[in-house]
## 1
Amino acid sequence: MAHEQQSVSIPNKIHGDRTVTAYCTGGLGTYRLHKRWHIVHIASGMNIGGGRGGDRRTRKGAFAVMDALLQVSIDWSRSYEEIGNDLQVNHTAIMMALATARNL
């Protein structure tokens, strides 16, 4: 799966919004902040998956987590408010995808 670089705004109420360059595909992106890679929902800038699942110390590990999340039947290109119900319905599938990515 091809990942393209794109600027994404990450909201932060304490330190102010941050613009990062993320490797994006399918409505999700991954970017490095300090020593870890994070998965971000591009439309909202919200982190997805927290610290669960996968090896986020490497870009390869972060891509594995992102690709596992893209396998879940959610249209990640929609806004966070629109996919909120889908996230609740597919919670188990998301946790399984994160667990699978952890074992890669």
## 2
Amino acid sequence: MIPLILRLKKASHKEIAKAQDIIVSAVYEVLFDSVLHGGTCIWRCYRGNRFSEDVDMYIAKDKARVNLLFELFEKKGFEVERKKISENSIYSKLNYNGTQVRFEAIFKKSRGSLAEYESAEGNLLTVYALTAEELIIEKVSTYLKRRKIRDLYDIFFLLRHVKDVSKVKTFLNELLSRFEKPLDEKDLRVIILEGVVPTTEQMLDYIKRRIEHG
């Protein structure tokens, strides 16, 4: 398997990927039951083809351990440029040798499933992540709220990891019934790492076929 860092074409993407690895590793040193979700989860745990900048996790609401986590970030070389901790979530901007990465977390108990996270160097780290079905359900909700092409692409991509489409059929039907065109359709070409960049119509056709034929 070609290491991830060799599949990334942009130098900035390579640096972000390395910074993400340090963040994910640090989280599991302090908050052991954390669960990855979002675009970086898809990219790293499901061999996704779309670059994602943010690290999104569900973590335990433990103030002492959250403080330890940010101390650990700093020990590992990050500058904490912004940190906002609310009742339900964390939003932060971290800088690692000039590379900025956002770490966002929601205080939520989520079981997660064991998954293999591919590091930039091609190593595998065992983590907790959402299943493909759970990610699709989240992405349908996210697309309907913000209409970003990346979320539609993620749904299209993740369906190849779903054997029993009945588990997500209700959510896919909701997506189709309420669908409006993405606001940023042209942006997809910039974040697809390799291969063909599907159009909105092609992705919708694929989703419809999976609903009909499973």
## 3
Amino acid sequence: MKKYILLVFVVIIALAGYFLLARGQHKLAANAAVSVTDSTGAKVHIPAEPKRIVFLNASNLEIFTSIGGKAVGRPTSTSYPDDIKESIKDIPEVGMIHAPNLEKIMSLKPDLVVGTNVPFHVMLRKPLEMAGVPLYLNMINSYEDVLKSIDDFGRFADREKEAAAKRAQIEKEYAALTQDVQKGKGPKVLIIFGSPDSFNMSTKKSFGGDLAERLGAVNIADKAENVKDSSYIPLSMEFVAKENPDIVMLITMGGSKEILEKLRANMRDNAIWHDVNAVKNNRVYQLPPSLFTVNPGTHTIEAMKIMKEYMYGEAK
């Protein structure tokens, strides 16, 4: 009997040791760093399974949340889509996209910070690295960038199955929406991005320009001199008059009514606009700020449907 009890005791000790070892190995694997390249071309060493991710911009957080990811910090923003507002309302804020609060970020003890390629985020790389926190900058300038972000965040959140389903859904809707589109055979369009300081033309390197091209539009901004890899170039009335777009689509910073009225007043008062087909035929449209001022992420198809309706009068 004593031998039996001793044997059972030995087995229990052995099993306990095995599970402790397995747990330790799993923990090491979870904490192991993997090397990835972000949108700036920087090599970033991030945890294989990050548990405490802070986001600095709304677009990246929207995609992450849409596949079931749970962040510990988020930017202060009024641009969140309705379908995620409830799920993120209790997540601590770390400041506006252009003014992230480093002290607040660090107080959340992140093991990964995700931002976008803007100066206010780039400048955080050094202090975060000194604190042992990796910074991953993810730009979303195209439909393909949305799909890639879904894949990447699926791995970050250990939600690859959900990410694959979300990607498949978007790809299916995209195929249906673009099946009757002929590249470069659509109307000539001008996409104007208005900010308090300036008006610019969106090229195919911008998100709106990328969507327009995928819908068959001929974007006049891509014909301008010295475009190169620019997402936006200054609005030139002489160039607009020469190219004579069929449609003008307006995007205003934050959906500002003041910026929109300033542009409409310019169209009324500047005689050059009067001979532009888009103005003569009353085909000047404001694109919804919630889908175009801020990247729409997983709502990209919704944005494309609106743009297609303006271009062709339908959105199948």
